């Protein structure tokens, strides 16, 4: 392909993309395909000779698109969103075109400096105190792993990377029962181990960890000779939106000198709306590390996760490695590869710059406020269905319910809804029972899209009960 052909096909694909988004409501959210059907349509060996782009694109439309779940569909209410606002997508096209590897300041000065400014724009937008710095990670999982490694090194006097963990005792990490599975995985990868992740019972309407139980667990571990290393708090857990009361948790952390990381991957975006901060964000400035994902609710195309640090020094002491070939001479600069686990880094800050300038905070706030309000309306409509039960009340735009019957009936309803194709929901678990989750957050959904959940649930239930 030459560059003239590239330009022609670039225009064609841009037109295709616009038409795709305009017609998403006409498609089922999930594909009607069975395992193996897509692979069966692909050649079993690579081609020896190049093929024309028109043939490749035709196969893309016929084969690939028949097996895609449409995450940008306005009736996608499963998991959490992975939104892709148009300005963000355009920025990604530019990033793909320039194709820079932004590991050091000198390998892309603009990318490094734009990242620093975008992190600070978002710090201001979320109401975090001056002094917080940060870095753009690929996902909250990577940010959490970075924080857990920092906890590990801090608790071992920064000797774990050098000496290994043998003889360091049982390092203990504390969190609530409502945390995301990425916290478990971080403890696996960090060498701390699943058995040393202590999950604390939750309490209250927002299903936050019990601070008294947290302190008792720490005391018991100290008595047993274990080594408490850190606490992971949550704002907006994946299951039902569990959110810890940060002030009481941080008081315990300070009493025992424990590093504290806050996982606000989904709900952190809502903190651009000041009215939500008292309930979910009070005392947040006491956290050592905070992560939220603009690629969820704010509309930045995946992947884009921001980790804020009250003091970057502990994480740098944990992750920084500087062989001669990576050293930067001259004036002092920031090299963000020293803040993260991967050395290679994409230019993720550009899509934040395009997004924030295109919509402004007011435009993004309006979307989030709508989603929260519409989720509340939908919750009340489902509550009114005969025999249905709201199992967890709305936390921002997330709530859960059960239909009449046992756990098998919940799964049967979810499966039937998703086969129907008009909306997409997922199941979950809470308090020992299977539940059905609803999360409103797709960037371009309308009130009509959200309220369609009520009609589809009612219709499908009548068909299968």
Structural commentary:
The protein has 465 residues and is of the alpha/beta class. The chain is 41% helix and 14% strand. It has 14 helices and 13 strands. A 7-stranded mixed β-sheet has the order 1-9-8-7-6-2-3, sandwiched between helices. β12 and β13 form a beta hairpin. The mean pLDDT is 94.
The major β-sheet equals: 7 strands, mixed
**Mean pLDDT, rounded to whole units?**
94
Instruction: Estimate what percentage of residues fall within beta strands.
Output: 5-15%
**Unreliable sequence segments:** none
Terminal residue distance: 56 Å
* Shape assignment: globular
Helix-strand string: HHHHEHHEHEEEHEHEHEEHHEEHEEH
Question: Helix- and strand-based class?
Answer: alpha/beta
Number of helices: 14
**How are the strands ordered across the major sheet?**
1-9-8-7-6-2-3
Helical amount among residues, as a percent range?
40-55%
> What radius of gyration results from the CA coordinates?
24 Å
Strand tally is 13
List the SSEs and their pairings.
Blueprint: H1 3-22, H2 53-64, H3 86-98, H4 109-125, E1 133-137, H5 140-155, H6 160-163, E2 171-176, H7 181-189, E3 197-200, E4 202-203, E5 208-209, H8 211-223, E6 227-234, H9 246-255, E7 259-263, H10 277-280, E8 289-292, E9 305-309, H11 313-319, H12 349-383, E10 389-395, E11 398-402, H13 407-420, E12 426-430, E13 433-439, H14 447-464
Parallel strand pairs: 2-3, 2-6, 6-7, 7-8
Antiparallel strand pairs: 1-9, 4-5, 8-9, 10-11, 11-13, 12-13
């Amino acid at each position: 392909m030459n560059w003239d052909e590239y330009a022609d096909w670039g225009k064609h694909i841009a037109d295709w993309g616009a038409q795709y988004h305009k017609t998403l409501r006409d498609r089922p959210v999930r594909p009607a395909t069975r395992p193996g059907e897509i692979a069966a349509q692909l050649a079993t060996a690579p081609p020896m000779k190049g093929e024309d782009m028109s043939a490749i694109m035709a196969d893309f439309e016929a084969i690939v698109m028949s097996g895609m779940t449409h995450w940008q569909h306005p009736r996608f209410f499963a998991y959490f969103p992975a939104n892709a606002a148009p300005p963000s997508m355009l920025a990604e096209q530019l990033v793909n075109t320039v194709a820079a590897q932004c590991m050091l300041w000198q390998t892309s000065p603009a990318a490094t400096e734009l990242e620093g400014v975008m992190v600070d724009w978002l710090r201001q937008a979320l109401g975090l105190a001056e002094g917080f710095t940060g870095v753009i990670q690929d996902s909250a999982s990577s940010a959490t792993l970075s924080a857990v490694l920092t906890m590990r090194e801090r608790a071992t006097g920064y000797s774990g990377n050098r000496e290994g963990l043998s003889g360091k005792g049982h390092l203990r990490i504390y969190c609530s029962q409502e945390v995301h599975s990425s916290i478990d995985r971080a403890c696996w990868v960090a060498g701390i181990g699943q058995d040393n992740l202590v999950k604390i019972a939750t309490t209250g309407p927002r299903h936050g960890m019990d601070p008294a139980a947290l302190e008792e667990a720490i005391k018991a571990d100290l008595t047993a000779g274990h080594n408490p290393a850190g606490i992971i708090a949550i704002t907006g857990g994946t299951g039902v939106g569990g959110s810890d009361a940060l002030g009481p948790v941080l008081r315990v952390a300070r009493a025992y000198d424990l590093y504290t990381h806050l996982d606000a991957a989904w709900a952190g975006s809502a903190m651009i709306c000041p009215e939500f901060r008292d309930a979910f964000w009070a005392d947040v400035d006491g956290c050592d590390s905070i992560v939220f994902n603009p690629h969820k609710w704010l509309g930045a195309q995946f992947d884009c996760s921001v980790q804020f640090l009250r003091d970057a020094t502990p994480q740098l002491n944990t992750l920084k490695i500087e062989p001669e070939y990576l050293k930067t001479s001259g004036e002092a600069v920031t090299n963000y590869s020293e803040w993260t686990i991967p050395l290679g880094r994409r230019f993720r800050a550009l899509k934040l710059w395009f997004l924030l300038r295109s919509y402004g905070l007011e435009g993004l706030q309006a979307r989030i406020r709508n989603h929260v309000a519409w989720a509340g309306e939908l919750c009340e409509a489902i509550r009114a269905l005969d025999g249905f039960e709201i199992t967890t009340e709305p936390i921002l735009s997330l709530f859960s319910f059960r239909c009449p019957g046992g756990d098998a009936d919940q799964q049967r309803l979810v499966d039937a809804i998703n086969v129907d194709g008009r909306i997409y929901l997922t199941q979950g678990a809470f308090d020992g029972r299977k539940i059905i989750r609803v999360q409103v957050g797709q960037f371009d959904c309308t009130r009509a899209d959200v309220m369609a959940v009520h009609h589809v649930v009612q219709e499908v239930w009548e068909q299968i009960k």
